[in-house]
Fold:
Amino acid sequence: MGIFLIIAIVFVIGYFLSIRSHPFTKCRFCNGTGRHFGTTYGYAHRRCRRCGGTGRRDRLGVRFFRGN
Ligand SMILES: [Zn+2]
Structure:
């Protein structure tokens, strides 16, 4: 049982350090482009609503580790 606890702690610390250095991931909704293309007119697009046009999303746990 103890070994699993150690693995879990190492995993959490590693993820925490990873979040600190790389808090963002690409938006899955627009695939990181920040744009959402229409289906009829291929050139027509708008800002992605999920990420607000940045193409970035907070990674899972960013808010948890930041404490807000
Ligand atoms: Zn997006």
User: Anything to note?
Assistant: The mean pLDDT is 92. The CA atoms of residues 8 and 14 lie 10 Å apart.
